[in-house]
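Milestone 3.1: sequence recovery, worked example.
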């Protein structure tokens, strides 16, 4: 990005980079825990062929058990009554019913279990994030005005690994979301984006969104995206349209110390378990696989590798 060319958008982009940099330790922790869950051994490619790598599924099974149990639970939404009157209590009950119906409709439209998503994020990230997004495309004009065709306000679960935010005294001050998107998709939705860059349609670039309580702006590969001629767009939500929920929170500062995912406390133990089973598997492979012993007048040669041939004297 040419600094100074886009004014306030430049400031938002610089702010976003500061937030991303400040969360590097958190991202490193999340990536390490993801490798445990995915049963990916980072050092496997560096090992000689004689070592049989083993990655035990304990981390995966523990997280999946939490998610499976949570996905089967009935979601409860509690709205406190504004007053201790019958009317206020009925209004709170109506709001609870509406929110449950809205949540269910979003699950149906998106074909996903949002409760299960939240359980996975709470276990792996110790943090859940959701985004609400109003879209005119879900409204239809029937001649008497616009009415919802489906769910006019989408509820999307977001992975906190790709979110970076700054808290203010009254909640979120701003939030940055980063993801990878296909050039083809970006050009279809925003025809003027990436127009000056020579990318294949199948290429993948960084898509960055900046939101505060008044405005938003998008960046594709570091360049701001103009929407109807505007780089910065007032969104009129009145707040940052994300909700962050934290579990297993400590009073300490910094994301690594403040949020404690389930697997963080057993990371070293699981690594040692994998190492121990790797030793057992390697020893077993070396001891139990086929080998040949040839009695020969040649000089004795002992080779203890699997499938090796060892030469011994006839007597």
């Amino acid at each position: 990005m040419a600094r100074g060319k886009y004014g306030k958008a430049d400031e938002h982009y610089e702010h976003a980079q500061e937030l991303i940099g400040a969360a590097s330790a958190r991202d490193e922790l999340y990536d390490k825990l993801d490798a445990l869950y995915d049963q990916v051994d980072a050092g496997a490619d560096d090992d000689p062929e004689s070592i049989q790598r083993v990655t035990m599924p304990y981390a995966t099974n523990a997280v999946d058990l939490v998610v499976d149990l949570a996905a089967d639970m009935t979601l409860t939404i509690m709205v406190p009554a504004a007053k201790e009157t019958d009317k206020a209590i009925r209004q709170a009950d109506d709001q609870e019913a509406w929110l449950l119906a809205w949540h269910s409709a979003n699950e149906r439209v998106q074909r996903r279990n949002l409760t299960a998503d939240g359980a996975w994020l709470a276990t792996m990230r110790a943090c859940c994030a959701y985004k609400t997004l109003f879209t005119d495309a879900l409204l239809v004009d029937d001649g008497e005005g616009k009415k919802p065709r489906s769910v006019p306000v989408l509820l999307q679960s977001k992975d906190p690994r790709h979110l970076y935010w700054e808290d203010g005294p009254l909640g979120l001050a701003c939030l940055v979301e980063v993801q990878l998107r296909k050039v083809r998709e970006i050009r279809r939705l925003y025809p003027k984006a990436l127009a000056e860059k020579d990318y294949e349609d199948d290429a993948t670039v960084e898509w960055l969104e900046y939101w505060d309580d008044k405005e938003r702006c998008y960046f594709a590969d570091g360049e701001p995206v103009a929407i109807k001629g505007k780089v910065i767009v007032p969104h009129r939500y009145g707040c940052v349209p994300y909700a962050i929920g934290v579990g297993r929170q400590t009073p300490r500062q910094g994301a690594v110390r403040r949020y404690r995912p389930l697997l963080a406390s057993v990371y070293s133990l699981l690594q040692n378990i994998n190492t121990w089973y790797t030793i057992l598997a390697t020893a077993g492979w070396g001891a139990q696989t086929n080998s040949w012993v040839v009695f020969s007048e040649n000089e004795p040669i002992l080779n203890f590798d699997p499938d090796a041939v060892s030469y011994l004297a006839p007597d």
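The longest strand covers residues 171-182. The first helix runs from residue 8 to 22.
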